[in-house]
Write a structure and sequence with these properties.
The complex is a heterodimer of chains A (362) and B (521). Chain A contains 13 helices and 8 strands. With 362 residues, chain A is α/β, with parallel strands linked by helices. Chain B has 2 domains: 176 residues, no CATH class; 251 residues, no CATH class. Classes of the chains: A alpha/beta (362), B mainly alpha (521).
């Protein structure tokens, strides 16, 4: 073999070795528990949820812990009697029934909060499937609908419970099951093994020492403690540093373009809306009420009516209200903070309202 | 299909290379060429199969006109060819622009549906116009249709250049050895491709997250601080540099894998000591086209200074307009026309007074690079902005007009004690350098800008590194005579290790495909 051939061989071989090392580290450490369904130590999401429901002040939520979707799927399947289950993104994770001046108390006196980061249409289907298949079904499901939520594949994390998603989709659209979706998602899983962010998270977390389940002390919910805490209904109280930082941080005018698409591409899909409508009708038929909740964006976002985010909010909100009218279900809240009368200090950042706001929402 | 996508790197490219090799091994030169044309058309059709018809019609039309011109050098036939080419480009690229402007000027209401720009039309149109002009002047040989077809469609250069010249490409396609893969070509080509990929997906795409929000904020009338505005402008300056440099390397590397050497298109332009030199290093094949087919036919520098400046300005305005149908592009071209004219006037002035003897050249070298760089950054703002208002908002931030205060970091205030009050009275504020939060993670952004500046000013470029392998046509005139022994690529284990590490990182970063900026032109 001449020099050039050797050189080519070495490049191919070494590149493969480097990528294999990266993929192995990501796979073995797996900081988000994407690849390992069984947990290595004696604790588990199911045990965490059992302890959470029995806890007095809630449980600590350590930085590197179980996959959020593992937790909510455990919680959704637990037979616990509640008035409402809240499904949505991080925007609804502070909706609570156990805090003082609890949010949405007018609607539900007890809730379980199934909000997850990046929660979207696929999460609605998967979690609704779990909720509707257990003995003690919630009386109402509150869907926190974000401007990007009524579309497909706006976030890939729902694939954690893809079986539940496809089971519900098969019920709703028996003639329209696209099994090819599975191939696409498996490719995403494989690609994630060499994702630089995932690899960096993996090497920063050689051991997960903090997976033990620890009860939170009694504390002031408005201030927080060192770690985030899940209250017994799984609503979240952020850590004291996060709360302090968010109180001090400045919110950019026009907001930031998170999962929003600029004009002329619509931020919702009519096909997704049709699927969501089928889901609502199915749940209603099974005796479960449904409610849509829109959580507001900060006043600074609305200070620039031409920003990509504001335009999207103006585009999506009327469509959501029309869905509510068409389905005959309640639509609570608004993306506009002035509509629901909240103040700029009631936000963690440009799109996350503090829990106080939800009282006004409902 | 993008060069920086898994499907291109791991599926399309290996299949095309293997097919080419398999056919070439059997000595089927014409079939190998047909295979490459088919692959290139597939590559082009991947975006929008509907436009395959357009490029094929364009090829057939131009080849036919070329054939007619070979038989009869008629100005009428040449004019027909050029008019049809420019008409096609004008319709797809500029029709909406002209209609909108007519509506504004006449207060009219002419409606025209938004026309989608077919990919690469600016590039393949220019390539074919040069061909027609050269046939008219009897500067071409008698090419056959297959070779001509590959000259236009060859996928490494089809989408965003270089704007290749038939004299450079067609003789390479007609050689007997074309069609046979060589390990040396694959080794050199893949190394250049990998370095280009790294520039695109690691450097350009990661600095883009600091540029885009700033320009979007400016479009939305956010009052930017000076640091945000300069940060955004510099971030875009480097984004465009690494994006285009990366693309050019990838194109050169891909072509080389097939044994084809493309012309040099990009040679460390931010190292230029003058604007004239900048345009000899940035998008070299476009500059060459504008010089040979616009500036010189206009009269060039033949009729005195005034005519020269007029011709320069016209050429650069057209160059700006070629980049996009918008006034920002025209103004950007005009700014560069002005810069080049000033540069020529300065050169003439220093020559007349004999300043060169007194060390002016040394001074020019020291300050020239900095002045040139700043001028280029300022002009890029106009190039990137979506509207004139957005550009003006950026300039307002960059040149102290936003409240006439220099923002200082908030942590500095208590450290300054009494001085702080005095500074406040002078108009200094302590809101923080990145007050609006649109520059992203500001520490990370500033560090990236600093390292990127070091790279573009001081490090040797990819083609320097591989200079012994003659990676691009026209590289020789840029290479310094001083022989540098270190940092010269060799097909050895050390460089295989370095290139493999770079390849692994680049492959990791292809998580989300992002288009090359020059695709839009």
């Amino acid at each position: 073999m001449n020099n050039y051939k050797w050189y080519l061989f070495k490049i191919l071989f070494l590149t493969s070795v480097f990528l294999l090392i990266v993929a192995s580290v990501s796979y073995i450490i797996d900081p988000s528990n994407i690849y390992h369904s069984s947990y290595k130590n004696h604790n588990s999401p199911s045990m965490y949820v059992t302890r959470l429901l029995k806890s007095r002040n809630g449980l600590l939520w350590p930085k590197h812990s179980w996959n959020q979707r593992d937790l909510v799927s455990s919680l959704a399947q637990k037979d616990v009697a509640v008035d409402c289950a809240v499904i949505g993104s991080s925007h609804v994770m502070q909706v609570s029934s156990v805090r003082k001046n609890a949010s949405i108390r007018n609607l539900c006196s007890t809730i379980i909060n199934l909000g997850v980061s990046g929660g979207t249409l696929e999460d609605y289907l998967a979690l609704s499937y779990m909720l509707s298949n257990k003995k003690q079904k919630p009386g109402t499901i509150v869907f926190g609908v974000d401007p990007w939520a009524l579309d497909f594949n706006k976030d890939s994390r729902w694939e954690r419970y893809r079986d539940s998603y496809y089971s519900m989709k098969e019920i709703l659209e028996p003639d329209n099951i696209n099994r090819d979706k599975g191939r696409f998602t498996r490719w995403k899983y494989i690609k994630n093994l060499i994702n630089p962010s995932y690899f960096l998270r993996s090497i920063k977390q050689p051991e997960r020492k903090d997976l033990f389940i620890n009860e939170a002390p009694k504390f002031n919910h408005a201030v927080g403690i060192d770690a985030p805490v899940f209250l017994p209904d799984r609503s979240i109280i952020y850590s004291n540093t996060y709360i302090a930082d968010s109180n001090a941080s400045r919110i950019p005018v026009g907001g930031t373009k998170y999962k929003i698409r600029p004009e002329p591409v619509p931020n919702y899909s009519e096909v997704a809306i049709a699927l969501f409508s089928k889901l609502v009708r199915k749940l209603n038929k099974a005796g479960i009420n449904t409610v849509i909740l829109m959580t507001p964006y900060h006043h600074n976002v609305w200070a620039d009516m031409n920003s990509v985010t504001t335009k999207a909010l103006l585009e999506v909100e009327p469509r959501i209200r029309k869905i509510g009218r068409d389905l005959g279900i309640k639509v609570l809240g608004s993306y506009n903070p002035d509509v629901i009368g909240c103040t700029p200090d009631e936000f963690n950042d440009f799109m996350h309202a503090k829990r106080f706001l939800f009282i006004k929402n409902c | 299909m993008l060069f920086n996508s898994y499907i291109f790197i791991f599926v399309f490219l290996p299949i095309v290379l293997l097919g080419f090799h398999f056919i070439g091994q059997r000595g089927s030169h014409r079939i190998a060429i047909s295979w490459l044309i088919a692959a290139s058309l597939f590559f082009y059709g991947w975006w929008n199969p509907a436009y395959l018809g357009l490029i094929l019609v364009s090829i057939i039309f131009n080849f036919t006109i070329g054939g007619l011109l070979e038989k009869n050098s008629s100005k009428l036939i040449l004019a027909l060819g050029i008019i049809v080419n420019l008409g096609l480009l004008g319709y797809f690229k500029y029709a909406n622009f002209f209609v909108n402007n007519i509506n504004v000027l006449t207060n009219g209401n002419i409606h025209l549906e938004q026309i989608i720009l077919p990919l690469a039309i600016s590039f393949f149109t220019f390539q074919q116009i040069t061909y027609l002009v050269d046939v008219y002047y009897r500067l071409t040989k008698n090419y056959d249709f297959l070779h001509y077809c590959l000259f236009v469609t060859f996928f490494p250069q089809l989408i965003a250049g270089p704007i290749v010249h038939h004299k450079e490409m067609l003789p390479q396609f007609t050689r007997d050895i074309f069609g046979k893969l060589k390990a040396s070509h694959l080794a050199v080509g893949s190394s250049i491709f990998i370095l280009g990929l790294f520039k695109k997906v690691v450097l350009a795409d990661n600095i883009a997250i600091h540029a885009t929000p700033v320009f979007e904020a400016a479009e939305n009338d956010v009052v930017l601080t000076m640091f945000e505005a300069w940060g955004g402008a510099l971030a875009y300056t480097f984004q465009l540099y690494f994006d285009f440099s990366g693309y050019s390397d990838m194109a050169i590397g891909l072509a080389r894998m097939f044994g084809v050497v493309l012309p040099l298109n990009f040679y460390s332009p931010y190292k230029a000591n003058s604007i004239i030199e900048f345009w000899r290093r940035w998008h070299i094949t476009l500059s060459r086209f504008l010089r040979d087919y616009v500036y010189i036919p206009l009269g060039g520098n033949r009729n005195g200074h005034v005519h020269r400046y007029k011709n320069l300005m016209i050429t650069m305005l057209l160059g700006g307009f070629w980049h996009g149908a918008g006034w920002t592009f025209v103004i950007w071209g005009g700014m560069h026309g002005l810069f080049i004219s000033i540069n020529h006037a300065w050169n003439a002035f220093t020559k007349r007074i004999g300043a060169r003897r007194f060390g002016a050249q040394l001074v020019a070298k020291i300050f020239g690079r900095l002045i040139t760089f700043v001028a280029v950054v300022i002009a890029w703002v106009m190039f990137r902005a979506e509207s004139l208002a957005g550009a003006m908002n950026m300039y307002s931030g960059m040149f102290f007009n936003n409240g006439k205060a220099i923002p200082l970091p908030s942590w500095l205030e208590p450290m300054l004690g009494d001085v702080s009050g005095a500074l406040k009275m002078l108009g200094f504020t302590y809101h923080g350098m990145f007050y609006n939060g649109v520059f992203g993670n500001s520490n990370q952004g500033v560090i990236m800008l600093f390292f990127m500046l070091l790279i573009v000013w001081f490090s040797p470029n990819t083609l320097d590194w591989l200079k012994d392998e003659k990676p691009a046509l026209g590289l020789d005139k840029f290479l310094v005579k001083r022989e540098r022994k270190f940092l010269v690529w060799k097909a050895n284990g050390l460089y295989a290790l370095i290139v493999a590490a770079i390849a692994a990182v680049a492959i990791m970063y292809i998580q989300q495909e992002s288009e090359f900026l020059y695709f839009q032109f």
